[in-house]
Amino acid sequence: MTAPEFSHIVTLAEAGQGRAVAIEADQAARAAIARRLGLVALGRFAVTAEVRSVAGGIAAAGTIDADIVQSCAATGLPVPATLHEPFDLRFLRDASPAGSSEEEVEISDADCDILPLEGERIDLGEAAVQTLSLALDPFPRHPDADRILAEKGVLSEDQAGPFAALAKLRGQDQS
To answer: Which of 10, 53, 84, 113 is the most exposed place for a label (fewest CB within 10 A)?
Structure first.
């Protein structure tokens, strides 16, 4: 496994009774994160969090703030965005699911933000990068995408969809 691009280790001892953490990725880390996540650019990536020890592990709650540029899914044009994403994570010793690896495990929404505690420490930076990856728009669209596609002769969903032919027939009946 390769080293994370943006690592910030917090130990169980450091979390103790609670600790504020504020970290920001430098240019090299932002470039590496952008490559990993398939971003055109990552102009700013900052994390603020409160970490504290909890029964069985560490809790980390805070926000990530990022200025990103993604490629439009339809045109490839740059789509800038500013993200402000809260997170509330629990890193617990007994977070691994019970049962065999072939067994299907059902989890609730509350379980989605529970991660395994590895040793007596967490990597808050890596958790923040993973939070960023989940916050990205999976299909970013440039504001001018529809116009650009229309100029290139690409039909919209309304023009090419399954009901477009019916709409044309309906219009012919009324003439």
So the answer is: 84
Query: What spatial distance separates the first Cα and last Cα of the chain, rounded to whole Å?
Result: 68
Rounded Cα distance between 117 and 1, Å, is 18
For residue 164, what are the CA distances in angstroms to 131, 146, 154?
40, 18, 14
Please give the model's pTM, rounded to 2 decimal places. 0.78
Q: Report d(CA 175, CA 166) in Å as an integer.
A: 15
34, 2 in Cβ contact below 8 A? no
Alpha helical stretches, state H, the chain: 12-15, 27-37, 124-135, 145-151, 157-160, 164-173
Closest CA to 21 of 91, 113, 124: 124
- Tell me the sheet residues that pair with 114: 90
Q: What is the distance between the alpha carbons of residues 6 and 44, in angstroms, rounded to a whole number?
A: 13
Residue 100, token pair as written in the block: 């065999």
Regarding beta strands 121-123 and 57-71, do their DSSP bridges make them parallel or antiparallel, or are they unpaired?
Answer: unpaired
Q: Tell me the two tokens of residue 54.
A: 């909890």
Strand 19-24 with 41-54, pairing: antiparallel
Q: Are strands 19-24 and 9-11 parallel, antiparallel or unpaired?
A: unpaired
